[in-house]
Design goal:
- It contains 15 helices and 19 strands.
- It is α+β, with helices and mostly antiparallel strands.
- The strands form 5 sheets. A 5-stranded antiparallel beta sheet has the order 1-2-3-5-4.
- α1 packs antiparallel against α2, α2 packs antiparallel against α3 and α14 runs antiparallel to α15.
Length: about 550
């Protein structure tokens, strides 16, 4: 056999292509339209079976050279699927249309060939066959729009020729790889082929314009109703895409619907002929290409933003390092002038006490107090800076021992305030003992500093309670002092924030910031609640972990 063209059989578009090329080859060989249609329909039936149940199927169209210079058009479908009842049914249908249909089963492979003899084969020379091959090689790629246009012409001609035989027309249309229907001027569907009824699962007697609402996607219903209304009024061709629900899968698949008016001998539109082609695969490819383009754009933007973020992080780290170095060096350099201030102030008070009047003594005292505040500020700045640049070793820490030691350290301040401290037993946790001591020292110092005076008649009280869960430990330090506005509960942990005047309550505004940073270094947190004039409560939450590790600030 002289091979003319080969067609892979994978999807519905390949079925259309197989039908189209079968008809074309028969046409090139000089066969009549009715013979072309019969041959192509038989080929389509076998190709459709291969697509539905086969694997790696393909078809070869060619011309066989017989004895006595006779020739025949041949279509061979190759498949690797088992020969089932479906194959037997397809072959049976094909044999009704073509006399010479052969089946060869070679192991797992099936070869179904359909032969059509050319009665006047003498005019088909070898060079003629080469021109057939060249024609199909140069044939432009098929598209759904072009395919529908060509099928419309063929089907209109076929309908005209087969008008006298409705049974033959239905038989052929049911086997064409298209969903076909016709609509009268009242909008009633007067004909639909088997493909359409099987796809929608609706009998022809129930098919009308209203029934389309049941099978069209909700997002397409309004547009389709408007298109059909204009079609009936304007009597023009409609070509549009909608999503239709497949009965067997209940899925909505994209289809292209073409409806064109059919006119009688007096050029009056008596009905409309419609064709439906599955273009869901094409739509998915288009959407995939669109998504890939958008994804590439997003990836490029992400890479750009990532680069910008890395640059900002690098600049921020450099700035933080420079600030830490500045704070550390400045704090150390500032301590030397302060020591001289304290020294000279002490010399003036001791050596010239008899020659300095009361005003001078007051000035010296104010100077000493200001220097003291500066020293306290430098001390707190150094403490906060160390939390951000030092490496701390973690181990088992007995919180009960730390609190007992702190209460001894604050014994004089507690006695001077007349305060009462109640403490629950505290467990051993994993952490850094020095920093945890600093945290609770700041909280106790604040509780004593902001306690009410004896003039109020309220005895200062500090309660240290502990609530333990399997994963964490919550320690609360609560006092009955002056409290603060609850709206300020987050502000108080910010650096240099003060809720009261320095004249009344001395301090740098760094202590609670240090507490927050220490809690975070232990993977914990600190929160506050209060009521102005009533109480202030600070809760430190620390995780309970048995793993020993080194923490880098």
């Amino acid at each position: 056999m002289k091979e003319i063209v080969r067609v892979s059989l994978e999807n519905e578009m390949d079925l259309i292509l197989a039908h189209k090329r079968s008809m074309k080859l028969a046409e090139l060989c000089g066969l009549s339209l009715s013979v072309q249609t019969t041959f192509a329909t038989a080929v389509s039936e076998i190709a459709r079976c291969a697509i539905e149940s086969g694997a790696e199927a393909f078809m070869i169209l060619g011309v066989d050279f017989l004895k006595a210079n006779r020739k025949q058009v041949t279509a061979i479908v190759y498949d690797t699927a088992p020969y089932t009842d479906r194959w037997q049914e397809a072959v049976s249908y094909a044999k009704r249309l073509a006399d010479n249909v052969k089946v060869v089963r070679n192991g797992p492979r099936i070869e179904v060939s359909i032969h059509l003899e050319i009665n006047f084969a003498g005019i088909i020379s070898t060079s003629k066959l080469e021109s057939f091959t060249q024609y199909f090689a140069e044939e432009p790629p098929i598209s759904p729009y072009d395919e529908i246009r060509r099928k419309n012409i063929q089907l209109q001609d076929l309908a005209q020729r087969l008008r006298e035989s409705e049974a033959s027309y239905r038989f052929l249309s049911d086997r064409l790889p298209l969903m076909i229907f016709s609509v009268n001027h009242r909008g009633t569907i007067t004909f639909s082929n088997k493909w359409l009824q099987d796809f929608l699962g609706i009998p022809i007697t129930q098919l009308d314009i209203a029934s389309w609402q049941q099978v069209v996607h909700a997002d397409d219903q309004h547009r389709m109703a408007s298109d059909l209304s204009q079609l009936l009024v304007q009597k023009k061709t409609l070509r549009a895409q909608y999503r239709l629900r497949q009965k067997s899968t209940a899925k909505y698949l994209w289809h292209m619907i073409s409806i064109l008016p059919a006119e009688n001998d007096r050029d009056m539109t008596t009905q409309w002929i419609g064709f439906i082609v599955d273009i869901h695969a094409q739509k998915q490819v288009e959407q995939t290409l669109k998504d890939n383009t958008e994804l590439k754009d997003t990836q490029q933007k992400l890479v750009y933003h990532q680069q910008q973020l890395e640059l900002k992080i690098e600049a921020l780290n450099r700035s933080n390092y420079e600030l830490e170095q500045f704070a550390h060096l400045a704090s150390h350099d500032l301590q030397e002038p302060l020591r001289k201030l304290f020294f000279y102030a002490d010399v003036l008070q001791q050596k010239y006490r008899d020659t300095i009047d009361t005003g001078g003594v007051q000035i010296l005292n104010n100077m000493t107090q200001a220097a003291g505040r500066m020293k306290e500020l430098i001390h707190d700045l150094l403490a906060y800076s160390e939390l951000n640049q030092h490496e701390f070793e973690f181990g088992d820490v007995n919180l009960d021992t730390i609190l007992e030691d702190l209460l001894k350290d604050f014994e004089i301040a507690i006695r001077d305030k007349g305060a009462v401290v109640h403490k629950q037993p505290l467990p051993i946790i994993h952490g850094n003992a020095l920093k945890l001591r600093q945290l609770f020292s700041n909280l106790l110092s604040n509780a004593l500093k902001y306690s009410k005076t004896s003039a109020t008649g309220v005895m200062p009280r500090i309660d240290i309670t502990c609530l333990q869960t399997p994963d964490a430990l919550a320690i609360t330090v609560r006092d009955n002092g002056i409290g603060f506005d609850p709206k300020q509960q987050h502000r108080i942990f910010e650096l240099f924030e003060r809720l009261h005047s320095r004249a009344r309550y001395p301090g740098t505004g760094i202590g609670l910031s240090i507490c927050k940073r220490i809690a975070e270094l232990h993977h914990g947190s600190i929160s506050a609640s209060a009521e102005a004039g009533e109480y202030a409560s600070f809760q430190v939450t620390l995780p309970l972990s048995q793993q020993s590790y080194t923490h880098t600030a």
